[in-house]
Amino acid sequence: MKDTISVIIALSFFCFILFLALFYIVSTLYKISNVKSWKKWYNTKAFFIKFEQINDNKIIYESYKNIQVTAPILTEAKWWFSWSGTHLPKIESDLQKVENIIEKNWNYDSAILKFEKPVNWNNSTILHFRAECDDSDKKSLPYSSALTETKTDIIVFRVILRNKNSDYSVNWKISKLKKWAPEHKKELLKEIPFDKETKSYEYTVTNPENDYYYILSWNK
């Protein structure tokens, strides 16, 4: 009788462990199959943006994102960008392989940044995006923006205008605009003076609201 009870207890314990294992496998597969939107891939811990006007014709846009993965496994990330000039920029990355640049989807271009090794759930990594822009026809607009479509802790803007002379002293504006809202709904957050010594503007947005554009603008 005791042997029978022991067998039943052992079998019950084995079935319980098997159930937990199957539940974990099924839930993981469900998560993988349910990750259809790139928004569910990661959260952004820190977003660093540098816009550098080298001369009247050449602009370098460079950005780093410190992200925490929320998908079960992440092998690539889509990077949306909007260049207001007429020539498609040269896209590079020091940390990922750039694949499949798509022009003008919902008024945005995009590039796929492929990781050398997959990044697992809850781990952090750095995304790097660099665009060399040709503005020889002077069609680009004087602004840089960041869209917070995932949870973001901090955004750091830096604009370097090497082509400006010592007389340039225009204040810089940082504004925010709700996604899909009309332009006249844009809210001015602050004006910051131009640093003549470094020829730059710099501003940090802490705990930005989700689904907002944060827009840095200045006079060209």
Provide an overview of this structure.
It is elongated and about 95 Å long. It contains one helix and 13 strands. The protein folds into two domains: 1-34; 38-217, Immunoglobulin-like (Sandwich). Residues 32-38 have low confidence and may be disordered. The strands form three sheets. It has a six-stranded mixed sheet, with no helix packed on it. The chain has a four-stranded antiparallel sheet with strand order 8-13-10-11, with no helix packed on it. A three-stranded antiparallel sheet has the order 3-6-5, with no helix packed on it. 16% of the residues are buried. With 220 residues, the chain is of the alpha+beta class. The chain has one helix at residues 2-34, and strands at residues 42-53, 58-69, 73-81, 90-92, 97-105, 108-120, 124-134, 143-147, 154-161, 172-178, 187-192, 200-206, 212-217. It starts with a helix and ends with a strand.
